Amino acid sequence: MWRDWLIGLAVGVAGLLASWALLVLLARRLPPGLLRDLAAFIPDCLTAVRRLRRDPRVPRRARVAVVLAGLWLASPIDLIPEFLPVIGPLDDIVVVALALRYAGRRVPRPVLLEAWPGEPRLLLRLLGPARAADGETGPPTADR
Q: Phi-psi bin for 123: left (phi > 0), alpha (psi -120 to 50), beta?
């Protein structure tokens, strides 16, 4: 009985990893633009989560929020099943966006931008205008 359960789990994990690899491959083949940014959003989020959880400049609460968002992404249990086209990854995107916005209020912008592997303008748009405490004012731009 345990053997069958472990085989099923291994097949499920392999299928999940294969679908992620396919998404990454397809995202790299898309022309630059919003569609490519959205396709690369979840892999970029996973990389940022990994980098932020190891960074000593990230406060404990922000680190916990970011790690929980990473665990949500990696979890096979979702509110909206992944196999549904277009809306499948929507719950993942919302959870990660909320965690990044939370961390964005507690972590200096340069630390977040350093951890983000993707297009900086996408992260800056997600975070919203910088606070005066960060030493920045006005709308976010890619060069900040």
A: alpha
Whether pTM exceeds 0.70: no
Query: Token pair of 70, please?
Result: 């990473």
φ/ψ of 62, rounded to 5, equals -65, -40
Q: Angle 98-102-108 (CA atoms, 0-180°, nearest 5)? A: 135
CA angle 46–70–81, rounded 5-degree value = 100
What would the pLDDT profile of 67-102 be if each residue is shown by its tens digit?
888 888 777 777 777 676 667 777 777 887 888 888
Q: How many CB atoms lie within 10 A of CB 12?
A: 11
CB 103 within 8 A of CB 72: no
